[in-house]
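FIELD: query
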Amino acid sequence: MNGYHRFLIILFSGIYLCSGCQPQDYDETEDSEKSISEIDSSYITVTQALKISDTIATVKGYIGGCIEGTSISKAQFTPPFSKESNIFITDNKNDKLFDKCFPIQLPAGSIYREVLNLVRHPENYHKIILIRGKLERYFSRSGIKKISAYKLLDDISPTEDTIKGNGYIVVPF
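FIELD: result
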């Protein structure tokens, strides 16, 4: 085998091997067709979620309010609320510091805005929520802009049976 053929074999072998190393696109529909319990039975805290991004995770927290402006510093911690486009969650329902807020986008026309916004559903204030989605930058910090599933829980610490049980709301994008 001459040098030219050896070069071609090495070149095509390298291309073939590297083609499997390319990053995969996030397929929201694949994730949204499963319940939280089917995907994973664990969750992370708001404190943990604020430290990571560009991943898919289930986050547990208290619905603490919404962001009234274009900056997290405009977090509104007490009713009445006037923004339907977002909510934020915190690890403790008594947290009142904006840097402990994990923002969640509620897109216009979505079932998530219809069911989770605090303007129409003030009864959701301080409820515990398990929410799954892609963690990405939102209000200049880690947040969720693409929800794939959620579940509102009673004001108790969720047990493994609660997390693995039925009742998760999953809506395709």
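FIELD: remark
Residues 41-164 form a domain with the OB fold (Dihydrolipoamide Acetyltransferase, E2P) fold (CATH 2.40.50.200).
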